[in-house]
């Protein structure tokens, strides 16, 4: 009839085919399940140790968080063939080849090397090189020694050995390290590198960071190369080519988890955060050194510049920008 509008035709909503919907659901379930399964598999493989003990006079917690990163030079788990390949000799001692503090908070992150020959007080054992603390009392005494020497409260502890470092670098397919002009040739560590940036596998990386006899800066040059390797490993580990494909991330995670020992409070979430901080530190430095005398019965030691070291540790404790010092 005239004047009566025609009945509006209903608008049909376009529906996705049921097969497409179920495919999307399946993909989401697989991705979520893969991520969750990978997380719980990895978290359950972490090896832990007692490293953070309570004691009278322990420094109060500062602002931000401080990690103690340790490279053990123990040869106990190495075969004679591996010791020869890695150029690490047959010393049966349990010392620490690398000691670093990673600080992060509102300021930083900062990565600070502690020379292993630093002459400090080891609680209950008098004065000695700081790396002797590990041999005398394991991770817990080393952590306490670092806390007492620096005034910083350590919140997390991570340790890796020679072979573990080699396996982690190899699981990444190697890393790129830039050798200073003039090269680095050290018969004792096995390092034999010309100057320039070059790709190194696990064994070569270990040789590079352990060299000190051919370096005019000795142990101070070595700690700088150790920070260089840490930065290179963190950058490569957090790259999309490693994290996304399961055929890359799973071997890397397996090698890393087999290589690391952490304190009992540290889990995969904290380690992931540590990796992000290591990949882009705001600054890296070494505890300022005053002199390197030869002490009777002890050998060559490193004496800190107490004033500069005090300013560095105060900045870390208060989560402020760290001072810069020449030569570090």
The total beta strand count reads 17
Give the low-confidence spans.
Answer: 25-34
Structural class: alpha+beta
Order of helices and strands: HEEHEEEEHEHEEEEHHHHEHEEEEEH
N→C terminal distance? 95 Å
Strand content: 15-25%
Order of the strands making up the biggest sheet: 1-12-7-2-3-4-13
Helix share bin: 40-55%
Give the rounded overall mean pLDDT.
83
Specify the biggest β-sheet. Answer: 7 strands, mixed
Please state the CA-atom Rg, rounded to the nearest Å. Answer: 25 Å
So what's the overall shape?
A: globular
How large is the count of helical segments?
Answer: 10
Structure, explained:
The protein has 328 residues and is an alpha+beta fold. Helix content is 40%, strand content 21%. It contains 10 helices and 17 strands. It has helices at 18-43, 80-86, 132-150, 162-171, 202-210, 219-237, 240-243, 246-259, 268-279, 306-317, and strands at residues 47-49, 65-72, 96-104, 110-113, 119-122, 126-129, 156-160, 175-179, 184-186, 191-193, 196-200, 260-263, 283-286, 289-291, 294-295, 299-300, 303-304. The strands form 6 sheets. It has a 7-stranded mixed sheet, with helices on both faces. Strands 5-6 form a two-stranded antiparallel ribbon. Strands 8-11 form a two-stranded antiparallel ribbon. Helix 4 packs antiparallel against helix 8, helix 5 (202-210) runs antiparallel to helix 6 and helix 6 crosses helix 9 (268-279). The chain is globular and about 50 Å long. The termini are far apart. Mean pLDDT is 83; it is low at 25-34.
